[in-house]
Design a protein that fits this description.
This protein is mostly helical. Helices cover 65% and strands 0% of the residues. The protein has 4 helices and no strands.
Length: 109
């Protein structure tokens, strides 16, 4: 089954209910289930946006109180991004290039 972007699905369901008129809300209608699912998904998406905003708000408040260090890790990432990366010598051994790539998949913490 193909997943539609939420805005497209909402538009299609709204148009279907409009076409069906009052019958679109009735349980006998094929549109009713789609409308119900679409409506609850809109509510969930709204709550997810609110949760994201609240999470940022809580993190910033804790950082301002000194309970959470945000600047230390941020400065560390900034210095890593601005630093000059090490260029390793070419490895001509068997699977040397592949070993180097696997080692670079995840940077050490």
């Amino acid at each position: 089954m193909r997943k539609w972007p939420a805005a497209n699905a909402d538009f299609v369901v709204d148009e279907a209910v409009r076409i069906y008129g009052g019958m679109g809300y009735s349980a006998e209608s094929p549109v009713e289930r789609a409308y119900r699912d679409s409506r609850i998904n809109r509510i969930f998406r709204r709550h997810q946006r609110i949760d994201r905003l609240l999470t940022v708000d809580v993190l910033l408040k804790r950082a301002m109180k000194g309970q959470l260090d945000l600047m230390g890790p941020a400065m560390q990432v900034a210095s890593e991004l601005m630093g000059i990366p090490d260029v390793p010598e070419p490895d001509d051994s068997l699977l040397g290039e592949e070993k180097r790539m696997v080692a670079n998949f995840r940077r050490p913490c």
